[in-house]
Amino acid sequence: MPAQRAGRGERRFALALFLPAFLLLVATTTLPLIYLVWSSTQKLDLSMPWLSGFAGLDNYAQLGGDARFWQSLRLTFVYTSVTVVLQVAIGLGLALLVMQVRAGQALLRVAAILPIVLAPVVAGLFWRSLVLAPDFGILDFLTRAAGLGSYNWLGDPQLALISVIAIHTWQWTPFAFLVLLASLAALPPDLYEAARLDRAGPWRRFWHITLPLLRPAIVIVVILRMVTALAAFAAIFAATGGGPGSATEILNLYAYRLSFTELNIGYGSAVATVLLLITLAVAFLLFGLRRSR
Amino acid sequence: MDHKDSRRRVRRRMLAGAAALAGAPWIARFAHAQANLGAYQQARVNWRQAEGETITVAVIPAGYFNALEAITPEFEALAGVKVRYDKVPPGQIRQKAILDLTARSGTYATHAADPMYYDLYVSNKWVEPIENYLGDAKLTDAAWYRPNDIIPAWRGANSVGGKLYGVPFDGESTLQVYRKDLYDAKGLKPAESFADVMKNAAAVHDPANRVWGAGVRGFKGAGQNMYIYPSIFRAFGGQWTSGGALRVNGPEAVAALEWYVELQSKYAPPAVRNWNWPDLADAFSQGTLGLYIDANTSASVLVNPERSRVLGKIGYARWPKGPSGKRVSSIWNWGFPINAALSEKAKRATWLYIAWATSAETQARTSWKAAGPVKRLGLNRLSLWQSKEFAALAAGLGANFLPASIESMQNDLDVDWRPRMPQWPAVGETMATAIQAALVGQQKPKEALDEAQARIAQLLKG
Amino acid sequence: MKPSLLRSTLLLAVAVAMMLVWVFPVAWGLLTSLKTERDVLAYPPTVVFEPTAANYADIFSGSASIVPNLVSSFIVSGLTTVLTMLFAIPAAYALARLELPWKRGAGFWVLATQMLPPVGLVIPYFLLLRKIGWTDTYQGLVLVYLTFALPFAIWLLVSYFEEIPREMEEAALLDRAGRLGALWHVILPQAKGGIAVTVVFVFLNSWNEFLFAVVLGGNTVRTVTVAMFNFISLEQTQWARLAAAAMAGMAPVIVLGLIAQKHIVKGLTVGAVKGGGRR
């Protein structure tokens, strides 16, 4: 009986802690979400106001035949998966490294925060004009000096995608690094003692002990990084504007272009809604992986 | 009694002195502003008829708007209207203005408007016809304001159906900007035809020594690469409409795009694909470009001793003649429209502000009369361009700057240089993508334009 | 001995290489901020030049001063961070450790709100804030930032709370301190490293945010990211001053990061892999 009462008391306590944040989120996200979905069912084009009206699923149907949408989707998939995998792999690797090699640790932690702190708008501009520009940027200078030739990093359609992935990874890997470092630091050390006594090598220790314990944190990092990659805007916009052509126009940029440049808000909302659904689906799948127990 | 009296007198004098001291700076500013207002008060208009209003103006961060902002206290003293500026980054100002206009919230009484957007504004009934204010004798003294002095092509560009909707404040036209020293050394004259452009570029092209022959905007955007291409298109004799519908893939369009791609691929540095106007000006000012064709107002950047290495080596010339025999420059101006969602009094206050900003006196005060090193060049009135004060200002900018600019503005401006329609934002962006796709070799020019045509046709169907 | 030394050196080399890659562009930005415009555009890029503090003078005084914008950013990011942590810490704890009804659904719903694409939210937020007259106000922008920061913070914190050994909590509860006391005196200090990391990133995300700051801000609320464009005009990019502004914009967050580092360090020395004992 005391257990029951304790249960109810705990539930009330839990609700009291949880509800403020929950209610705030409900209040601020419900209406915008409704607007977003509603506007995706409307013909809402500011440049042709005489056409406005209910459109049902026409906008979505139009997506099906829109080659640029499908290309954008493909680009988004490549961009997001590559950068997230790189970020987590490099971040985790570095975090493990830092735990083992004590020298220069503090320096590395300070260096780690620098790329993320640089405003994405400025990062995009710097990379475009001062670093990556052929004949004028410093990277070109270095590759030529090293005998590696000159490349149009942002001007060549294939290279441009690689370049923006590199810029995004460069900027955000430190997040994975710092978050996973803090997670590693908080792991209970006695498990390692037991494994060491068991004469398990460092790789086995990592695979069988550390990784499973880190799994929830890694999944969260992956989900959060995925959301950031999908919402990436300022840096790519400043670096390439979605170009050359539409070689780096990820879905987010395409939705922005449709809603805010072409002023076809109904269609742009449809693209944004599709982006939302895709993100939700992937997050849902990943979320299931969290349960390590 | 005597004692108390004198003490009162002293106290009064001290208070007066303190008040004077506290108020001195304000009084001085007020007096200064008042003294300066003589030129405006000549106008037979009651400047104070909208007294007490506060208006917010959205502009971009730029030298010409900074100059206007610096002397705005004069307007506030003149009209009793408070003016606040919101400086929005150039990539977002259209969007922010449109958001405000479509929500009809009346936040921005006026804003720096892109002339290609007036069709959009008018079809949504977001802005007021300026004639309501220009033609009202209580609001405008036509003899003093001289609206017809404002560059006609710019007024035409800001008009829809023959009615003006935004008053031009600052503008430009595009010219050839070339390295006079390099051309002189090889005995070259600035290009008179498109073929000449290629020849000149080839002659000075020396990438091994970091000098590229020529370059124009490559960055993708309705206001970027699609700011230069239309001049080439029109010079080739292209027409935007055919049989009443928009046509972008005709033979002239393909020829124009092919010429553009050839020039950029052969004679421009590879980085040009991502270059906008400031990047071209930077490259030229570092001596790495033999020629670029862009806004004449970049002159002030090129003669800035802080960055430029080509002082005294700059020459200007009008656009070359295209195969059709036409020279077609660009039309650009930042104009001020009046937000239709304002109250009547606020609209009058806004008109008074616009009239003040676009008047000859203010134009002069932000140009050669301005304090500080930056003097505006993109003045909105032909009479000012032809004045001797401006000639003095333009003297150090480079060879032939003034004649080329004036002739260009008088002869080479073509109001239909870009297709003017409410759907311009989408059309412009689609064309921009096609142009860049052709430039980077993703598609052949004909393919790129065909795809653009298909996309535009779909777009216009709605 | 030898292979382990080789391994350590290799690892160290990798770490140093990583550090260089990360630091290089920022270091280049710092150098740029000390150059004159002429030197910035010089080619080959100059590493040796006569440094000048003029750019910093220009951005801290005069008409293009970004000082009011730094203040604006401070207010926005500071308020967002404080409010976020106030709401998120309890919520995360409830999700991580307590018997919350419909825990999985509620948890996923919170995460799902992160998925809302900012591009699709700009217009509705603008219209909503306009309706209640909160455009160009601090409360308006902070409210919108909270929407993005809360789910982010909650889920980061959940990972850290879940790592705290249950025995510690049970011990604290038995201590008759009550649940709130347990949370305050035992759980939070244990999760200090995680909380520090969360604070840094919540602050950082709102500090560097651009799209909403432009659209929902204005004359009164003009953050540093918007102010960068004082130096990126249509006529020219003032690279040196832009670099100086970027450095100035980074400084407060770096300071915050350094302070937060101390708490992460504490965690490291306690939970060392190489057989460090329990405290």
Biggest interface, chains and residues, is:
A-C, 107 and 111 residues
Q: What's the overall geometry of chain C?
A: globular
How far the N terminus sits from the C terminus of chain C, by CA atoms, comes to 30 Å
Our estimate of the beta-strand percent of chain C is under 5%
> Percent of residues of chain A in helical segments?
over 70%
- Mind telling me which CATH architecture of the domain at 65-230 in chain C this is? Orthogonal Bundle
Number of strands of chain C: 0
Shape of chain A: flat
Sketch the topology of chain A as an H/E string, one letter per element.
Answer: HEEHHHHHHHHHHH
> How is the biggest beta sheet of chain C arranged?
none
CATH superfamily of the domain at 65-230 in chain C: MetI-like
How far do the termini of chain A sit from each other? 28 Å
CATH domain class of the largest domain in chain A? Mainly Alpha
- What is the spatial order of strands in the main beta sheet of chain A? 1-2
CATH structural architecture of the largest domain in chain A: Orthogonal Bundle
Q: Could you tell me the mean pLDDT of chain A?
A: 85
Instruction: Estimate the strand proportion of chain A.
Output: under 5%
Gyration radius of chain A, in Å:
24 Å
Helix tally of chain C? Answer: 13
